[in-house]
Amino acid sequence: MRAKISYAVTAAVLVVYLVLAGGRGVLLIQQGTLLTVAFGAAVLILPVIGLWFLWQNTRFVRKANALAAELDAEGGLPVDDLVRTPGGRIDRDCADAVFAERRAETEDSPDDWRCWFRLAVAYHDARDTPRARRAMQRAIALHAGRPPAA
């Protein structure tokens, strides 16, 4: 629940920032000189990119949460029994051992979205966020019946 609140607050702050930046872009364009119109147009591109980025991330998170809920209902969510440091971080060796299991499971069933979901969690636990995101994207694509991106 805390993560959802943090995401919502961060998204709201980003939207406020994008509105303010867009307003500045409009003000620059209204000045009417060649230079300010060029800068204003450039500034207006930032909110468009930011909104696209926010939209894509929100869609990704919602789809990943839907998969987690479905997997939880099936009783297939990975159990978080990883060893943690006194500071609360996951022990790297423990995460690597679980990752090896998840990788082998995924290699045995490469078309099962559940395996890819669990592999994504293992990547995340091993602090490899880019690969975790790609594995989750593959799980989402497999679940939707789409061919996964290469």
TrEMBL record:
Keyword tags: Membrane, Transmembrane, Transmembrane helix
Presence of keyword Transmembrane helix: yes
Highest rank taxon of the organism: Bacteria
Database matches in InterPro entries: TPR-like_helical_dom_sf
Residue ranges crossing the lipid bilayer per the database entry: 7-27, 33-55
Protein name: Tetratricopeptide repeat protein
Species annotation: Streptomyces spongiicola
Lineage: Bacteria, Bacillati, Actinomycetota, Actinomycetes, Kitasatosporales
